[in-house]
Design goal:
Length: 147
């Protein structure tokens, strides 16, 4: 199976609680390679731009206020079948419904404050990685020797 990339965000709640290191270690243990990473504090407009697809939904204002309240850590991750595997590792959107051992079960508090974001499909992942990282910050998708 080919290598694939996904966009991961360690959300404000998890960064505030100093869970970023544990989450990153878990992702590496699950076979993901960090291809790019940064800590940023989104403005409200930047959060709205990222979640544009959800504009008009009941939770949109709350979601964008939350995502812009304090810094996040954004990662471009690579492994085989990265999009689907990452979503398995973070678990269901609502931590109360997430499987035991998943990142949202371990570190999420509520459906609004659920510790992590992951792209929902490969086309979304490409758009989301490009939203946060310039081309020079992300190396080309691997041949075996690429770093
Ligand atoms: P994400 O995009 O953050 O990885 O989460 P997701 O795919 O599992 O869920 P999505 O439907 O894309 O929703 C984005 C985020 O909006 C918040 N949300 N709140 N109160 C609600 O009913 C509700 N529904 C969604 C969640 O924080 C979710 O992660
Ligand atoms: Mg989503």
């Amino acid at each position: 199976m080919a290598l694939e990339r996904t966009l991961s965000i360690i959300k404000p709640d998890a960064v505030e609680k100093n869970h970023a290191g544990a989450i990153l270690a878990r992702l590496e243990a699950e076979g993901f390679t960090v291809k790019a990473m940064k800590r940023i504090h989104l403005t409200r407009n930047e959060a709205e731009g990222f979640y544009e697809e959800h504009r008009g939904r009941g939770f949109f204002d709350e979601l964008c206020a939350f995502m812009s309240r304090s810094p996040i850590i954004v990662l471009a991750l690579e492994r085989e079948d990265a999009v689907a595997r990452y979503r398995e590792v973070i678990g269901a959107t609502d931590p109360g419904k997430a499987a035991e051992g998943t990142i949202r079960k371990l570190y999420g508090a509520s459906v609004g404050e659920n510790a992590a974001h992951g792209s929902d499909k490969t086309s979304t992942a490409a758009r989301e990685i490009a939203y946060f990282f310039a081309g020079y910050e992300v190396s080309p998708v691997a041949s075996a020797s690429a770093s």
